[in-house]
Amino acid sequence: MLARVFSAGVLGIEAYTVEVEADVGLGLPAYHLVGLPDNAVKEGSVRVRAALENAGFPLPPRRYTINLAPADVRKDGAAFDLPSALALLTALGVLPPEATEGIMWLGELGLDGSVRPVLGSLPVALHARRAGFRGLVLPAGCAPEASCVRGLPVFPVRNLGELVAELRQGRSLPALEQSRATQPAGVVLDLRDVRGQEYPKRALEIAAAGGHNLLLLGPPGTGKSMLARRLPGILPPLSEAEAIETTAIYSAAGLLRGGGLLGERPFRAPHHDVSVAGLVGGGPYPRPGEISLAHHGVLFLDELPEFQRPALEALRQPLEDRRITIVRARCAVTYPASFALCAAMNPCPCGYRGSSARACTCDVGRVARYLARLSGPLLDRFDLHVEVPTMDPALLLSSERAGEASEVVRQRVMAARARQQARQQRDPGLPSANADLGPEAVWRLCRPGPAGERLLAAYLRRHRLSSRALHRVLRVARTLADLAQKEQVGEAEVAEAIGLRALDRPLPDVPAAWSGRHLRPPPRIPAGKEEP
């Protein structure tokens, strides 16, 4: 007899329907599993037989064939155990065919018949709703994340024997109540904990308001990492669509800490020894990398020059396209990668060039080799690069906790983002953040008045900057205008945007250019005059 049960596989963060066909025939006792399975799926034949026997349904000595269709797509994971067991029981006549019709089944089986959690429950639930299934049966440990999908009944199960008993009696499985529960919140890091550093804090606010990439430069111990870790706290909260998309990535990667959607924007800080596959994704069976795990959040690269050059160069394409495509011999997987990049680095190998706390021990050649680790095209992807100077000891020892709280800054950021979203509603072709504005939108929305254009032209001629740098200055100026609740980009916004791009203004002595003297905003140029 032939029976068919529907399940699903996950490729990247997208699920696809898998038909689990079971055939019980005459012949020598055997168990064949076909349909391009990997080792974990092949080993499922042992788990299924033991689970059925321990649940009270031993398989008689027959020839069993399980086919996972489509046969030309490789299947991985243990999620096909439960649908395989149900297909076999249906083919043997233990279960009526109508008991499994119109429902998608998912789950790994233990030898005792228990149903264990699997990866990718949320992408499968989203696919099941799109495909028109009337329900999804899956392990109880995965049910909370799947229940976040509206309009799809979710039925959690814990044991194969209990499930079969319910199906044989024709009783309806108890559905889990629809939930919008979120993951447990982590420790909240407040911007008020950072003493001083008002200029870097301002850059942090601008980066959050426009989605800009930020590079922090300064000696060790000045608060670069401390500032970066507080960037998620001033970003707007995740919307429902963003939370579902980000949680689907974590579900496919098996990184969810519990039930429900992610309630906070992710913050990923990989070590500088991370491989290219670990950073952008990959492997024999492609898995999301750090840039996709930081989707709708922050990717922090501390000690930027210490990262492997191939890994850093691999960031250039996803920083522009907001996605990464991993190509393998049998498949191509695309992961979303819309993240805010924040990086930190020292001005020299010892870290103290230009510092008032300690003398630098690096010679000219050593500093030049250190800075050469970063390519120009990569540095061009940073909209903002600012100095984080050594703090005055008197300020560090002060008992006063000065500065604005993260929530106050977040309100200004949300107001600026609201202006960007209002423009997007008027023109659906616009992106949701200023950092993603295209060339046509930059000239239409970010062009300053005559005074601002003269200032910008003089600056570009003096420092011989590329058109990419020009566009990034204008995007930052547009964000500054949004923070000031202005419709028109003015000369003041252009001047501040120029001042926030320290690496555009190197001095003739390359190592001395990292001393911090050139990192202050340039002097204002009077209207109608040009720099000498």
Q: Could you explain the architecture of this structure?
A:
This protein is of the alpha/beta class. It has 2 domains: 2-168, Ribosomal Protein S5, domain 2 (2-Layer Sandwich); 191-519, P-loop containing nucleotide triphosphate hydrolases (Rossmann fold), CATH 3.40.50. It has 21 helices and 16 strands. Strands 11-12-15-10-16 form a 5-stranded parallel sheet. Strands 1-2-4-3 form a 4-stranded mixed sheet. α5 (143-146) links the parallel β8 (136-139) and β9 (154-157). α2 (44-54) crosses α3 (81-91), α7 packs parallel to α17 and α7 crosses α20 (467-483). The longest helix has 21 residues, at 406-426.
Describe the secondary structure blueprint for this structure:
Elements: E1 2-11, E2 14-25, E3 30-34, H1 39-42, H2 44-54, E4 63-69, H3 81-91, E5 104-105, E6 108-109, E7 115-116, H4 121-131, E8 136-139, H5 143-146, E9 154-157, H6 160-168, H7 198-210, E10 214-217, H8 224-228, H9 240-253, E11 267-268, H10 276-280, H11 290-293, E12 298-301, H12 309-313, H13 316-321, E13 323-327, E14 332-336, E15 340-345, H14 364-371, H15 376-379, E16 384-387, H16 393-396, H17 406-426, H18 439-445, H19 450-463, H20 467-483, H21 491-499
Parallel strand pairs: 3-4, 5-8, 8-9, 10-15, 10-16, 11-12, 12-15
Antiparallel strand pairs: 1-2, 2-4, 6-7, 13-14
